[in-house]
Structures are given as structure tokens and as C-alpha cells.
Write a structure and sequence with these properties.
321 residues, mainly alpha, 15 helices
Length: 321
């Protein structure tokens, strides 16, 4: 029997925050460059994004160990829009076959990092898809029990980062602990659905995610700080935060967040992102408008129909078996 996961509304707010942080870090002038705020803000958004991803994936597999269903639904969520964006970039950039294939197979985040112009941000999808593959193999071989290896895997990746002095990287074995930390959170919530935590805990933890995005020893804790901030909000969040994070606006931004992420980098590589510094920032409002518009249309007319198709197919297969 397939178990439907309960919806956690506050996670929509976190998803909205994560994509807004990424967009801000990539597209806006956030203070003097010597402070490195752009990189820190974008990295904070990615840490939250990966935490949410790991939490969702582990929660799905804790409830249902149907690996084909899991892979079908997740890959239909990620691949179509990513492949369309990649094909557009491949054609526009006259990309070599080797670079094109490594991007289409979601391995371009691995050394020597053959990322495309306009597609540099898609490294995170490589980490995501590679995680899907590994976790699917683990569950296929070990069932639900395999998920309890996740904390050890997370700590192993973090230990490797500490040993090599890697505070930030796009390479999977130096970054996947951010997803694994979110998966650890899913294990905690699964076994301890009700925990007393002070409502202000999230407010205290959230700024630490940004602090952990700088190249200092605190950066090794970034995955766990992001997971802790999200986790404490699941158990208890301040009233204002809860209202904002569960609002219709947050829900809409969360809904189109994947399209915003994929499309913003592609659009920056067009006329909308061209010119010297002044010209680029004059065009920024238009870039934001077009990005949000395209993401909305993409979700409504492209992503959601494909998702529904995948849901119907996997549901029909489950009923037949």
C-alpha cells in the first residue's frame, strides 16, 4: 500500500526563501565585494535547498520503498526542464560533444567541471541526480534499513571536507553532506514527530547558515545548521515566521522555484544579462520579471503536466501489481 506523506506547509516558505537567496546572490549587488555577501547569500540558499531535498527524498523512501516509483517521479520532476535548458545552451554556445554529454548525464560537476556558459548553476542538479541514483541503489539492496546509513554517510563526507580543507565545492563528494543532513532530519522527524523546542530557535539558527557560507571552520557545520534551522521550524516557529512561510505568496514562489532556479542562469546569458555593470543592473528588474513569468508558465504548462503524467503512470502500475 502506498502511503501519502503529510504536507508540511512551512517547508514552502523555506523553499521560497532558498530560491530568493540564490537569485539575490546571483543577480543583485549585495554590499561591497570585499564582504563576499553575494557568494555567502547564494551558498546559504543552496544549503537550504539541499536540506529540503534530502528531507523530502528520505521522507518519501521512509514511507514507501518503491524504488521505480520514486525514480520515475523524481526524474520526471528534474530532467525535462533541465534537459530543455541544456539543449538550448548547447545550441547557442555551439558546445562540444564531450561537454554536452557530461551535462546531459548530470556529471558536469565532477572534475574537470565541464560546465556550460549559462549553465554553471546546473551543477547542483548533478549533485541531486547523483544522490537519487545512490539512495535508490541503497534502498533497492537494503530496503528501509539502508536509510539508517545516512547519518554515517553525512559525517563521512563532512570528515572528508575537514581532512582536505574543503569549505565549499561543487564536487559531489565535497557537497552532498548538505543533502544528507536534510535526510538525517527526515529520520529525526520520522521517529520523533513531536519535540519541544523554543520557537525562537529557528531565528537564532538562520543567520548562522550565512556565517557558515564563508571559508572558515564554521563552514564545515553548514549542512547541519541548515538542517537544524529547518527542523526547529517544523516543530515550532514564531508566529510571524509561520504566517509568512505559509502564505499564498510563499506557496507560489515555492511552486515555481525549480523553474526560477533553472531559468535564471540561462536568461542571464542572454541580452537581459549583457552589458557593463551599470547597463546590467538597469536591466535587472526586467530580468526578474521575465524570469518569474517564464518560471510560472513553465510550471503551469510544462512541468506540472509532466508531473501529473508520471503520477498517473506510477499509480496505474501500482494498482496493476
Amino acid at each position: 500500500m502506498f502511503i501519502t506523506l503529510p504536507r508540511i506547509p512551512i517547508l514552502d516558505g523555506w523553499r521560497a526563501v532558498s530560491i530568493l537567496l540564490v537569485l539575490g546572490g546571483h543577480l543583485l549587488p549585495l554590499g561591497p565585494s570585499r564582504f563576499g555577501l553575494n557568494g555567502a547569500i547564494a551558498a546559504s540558499g543552496m544549503a537550504i535547498f539541499f536540506t529540503l531535498s534530502g528531507f523530502l527524498i528520505a521522507s518519501m523512501l521512509l514511507a514507501n520503498q518503491d524504488v521505480p516509483r520514486f525514480l520515475t517521479r523524481r526524474l520526471l520532476r528534474i530532467l525535462p526542464l533541465a534537459w530543455v535548458a541544456m539543449l538550448v545552451l548547447i545550441i547557442l554556445n555551439n558546445t562540444s560533444w564531450s561537454v554536452a554529454i557530461s551535462n546531459l548525464l548530470f556529471v558536469s560537476n565532477l572534475p574537470p567541471h565541464p560546465l556550460m556558459n549559462g549553465g554553471g548553476h546546473l551543477w547542483s542538479l548533478c549533485v541531486e541526480v547523483q544522490f537519487y541514483a545512490v539512495i535508490a541503489i541503497m534502498v533497492a539492496l537494503g530496503g528501509k534499513r539502508a536509510l539508517y546509513l545516512i547519518p554515517a554517510l553525512a559525517l563521512s563526507v563532512t570528515a572528508l571536507r575537514v581532512f582536505t580543507g574543503t569549505t565549499m565545492s561543487i564536487t559531489t563528494w565535497f557537497r552532498v553532506d548538505e543533502i544528507l543532513a536534510g535526510a538525517c532530519l527526515a529520520l529525526v522527524v520520522h521517529h520523533y514527530p513531536k519535540v519541544r523546542v523554543p520557537a525562537f530557535a529557528t531565528v537564532l539558527l538562520a543567520p548562522l547558515i550565512v556565517a557558515a557560507a564563508y571559508p572558515t571552520p564554521v563552514a564545515y557545520l553548514r549542512p547541519y545548521l541548515a538542517a537544524a534551522a529547518v527542523g526547529t521550524s517544523i516543530y515550532a516557529a514564531p508566529g510571524l515566521m509561520s504566517a509568512l512561510f505559509t502564505s499564498r505568496l510563499a506557496g507560489w514562489i515555492a511552486e515555481i522555484s525549480y523553474g526560477l532556479y533553472v531559468l535564471h542562469g540561462v536568461l542571464v546569458d542572454t541580452w537581459l544579462g549583457s552589458g557593463d555593470k551599470l547597463v546590467k543592473y538597469v536591466k535587472r528588474p526586467l530580468l526578474f520579471i521575465v524570469t518569474f513569468l517564464f518560471a510560472h508558465l513553465s510550471f503551469k504548462y510544462f512541468e506540472r503536466p509532466i508531473q501529473k503524467l508520471g503520477q498517473r503512470r506510477t499509480t496505474a502500475v501500482n494498482r496493476a501489481t
